[in-house]
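Hi Q.,

Before the meeting this afternoon, I wanted you to have the 5'-O-(N-(L-threonyl)-sulfamoyl)adenosine prediction in hand. No need to reply - just skim if you have a minute. The sequence and ligand are here:
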Amino acid sequence: MIDIKEDERLSKLNHSCAHLLAQAVKHLYPNAKFWVGPVISEGFYYDIDLGDYTLTEDDLEKISKEMKKLAKDGKRIYREEISRDEALEKFKDDPYKIDIINELPDGEVISCYTQGDFTDLCRGPHVDSVKECKNFKLLKVSGAYYKGDSKNKVLQRIYGVCFDDKENLEKHLELLEEAKERDHRKIGKELDLFMGHELVGPGLQMWLPNGATVRIELENYIRDKELKLGYNHVYTPYLASTELYKVSGHWDHYKDDMFPAMKMDNEELVLRPMNCPHHMLIYKHKLHSYRDLPIRIGELAHDFRYEASGAVCGLERVRQMCQNDAHLFVRPDQIKEEVSNVVNLILDVYKDFNIKDYAFRLSLRDKNNTEKYFDDDEMWEKAESELRKVLTELGIDFYEAEGEAAFYGPKLDVQIKSAIGHDVTLSTCQLDFLLPERFDLTYVDENGQKARPVVIHRAILGTFDRFMAFLIEETKGAFPLWLAPVQVNIIPVNNEYHLEYAKKIMKKLLDKNIRVKLDDRDEKLSYKMRESQASKIPYSLIIGDKEKENETVSYRLFGHKETENLSLKDFEKKIVNQIKERK
Ligand code: TSB
Ligand code: ZN
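Predicted structure with the ligand bound:
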């Protein structure tokens, strides 16, 4: 889907359309006050104060009509530069605009754009005439806190999108519709995968039996892979003393992302946002020789982060998450090989899941942000260049992004796009010279001297939460056989004659650990088949006279129209193999 913000012409057009929207709103609601109307990847929005009034879909229709009328009138759009005093005078009735003017740095050129009877404070640029904005669509309206702060008033945010021509607008709307259909929150509900509840709170999801089944399979899958690669798995507590995070540096550099400390008697505890400090202590618990390294400590570990309530999104961004985490303790001469192994593991896993649409991002520090990043140029440069070298040597395309590093070191992040266009990190591999220093980690080198290991933080599936969100959107809920919550649905044609044999099949498959459902409701076969397809169950078995007589099964694969027939024995063998291969 096109990113409107990335396209110069479309940005200008959408921003102009936001003004057209504001003009129409002003006509229909003369008391409306306007905050900001920026361009976003999906188009534009405008935040508007309508007092206590909440806009409805019907209102959007009305506003849209007024916009169409104004666009047809085709007023020219004029730019005018004014002084700060003139601006304060011009917008004196609009406290939001006054706020914006007061926040503009001294010396900044203040400009207004006027079309007909409407003037808005704006940096621009804009198209020449409102006529150019005629191919738009208002998409939705929602509440948004003024300045994004939940302590402030809720404004009405109207979203829209605009194109130069009708064809492109319609194409875009179709893609939006498709994306909505793929949204993991929608499919999650339809397939009973996970749920939230206001009594639990934002960003805290509950995995329902169907979702939990997929997750258990994912956990087994990645643990098996890691075991083959020499990882050792541990369990560590979700809580720790605040002191631990003072030693690690999280308290200084990551506190805003953590839930506040809990004070009890003489103790102060925090919910952990990351698992690294616990794993550092596990490493430190024993003496290590250079021959023991690399040591790879893995954990499927729960973390807690105070994500803004407006930023949480289904399973994609949560406040309690479970990382597929590991910390690799390596000698400096092993960095390259171990980072390469991690990158290769990522690629291997992506192949298994047929993930093709992703981009490697080398996430660097922002040198000017000394609050977030510790101050040691040499350490940063070394770590950043090591990661760059590995990517280059493996021939992997990547882009660089400043200010995206972790506080303790640079990262290799794998970025994916969600159905609704969020750019998020799935896998990550991070190089850290800092925490080994903070925890005074050592090993004994070849000369019997104490030496400092380096730590590689890595998460292949990222978190099970985000990976699940991604997987749901990639598969549209039609999971591959080995992951499917229900793998086989047995449908007897007639309960009176075929139920017994259907039960026999069920028992045989259950004995092989296959997840089976028997649909013995008194409904029509065609209805049950339709439901089976809607539930995206990989195998639907149709059991009638012929099957019963010959000890066979007739099956239809999800998304297919033809029915195949196999002896029960062969079917068992086939499905067991397919599941084992995790194809
Ligand atoms: C890899 N200490 C490292 C770890 O050793 C760490 O915590 N890295 S992280 O901050 O990048 O998080 C790891 C992964 O968790 C990310 O790559 C991302 O896929 C996932 N993740 C981060 N925040 C969230 C969230 N709020 N909801 C769901 N998943 C998240
Ligand atoms: Zn870590």
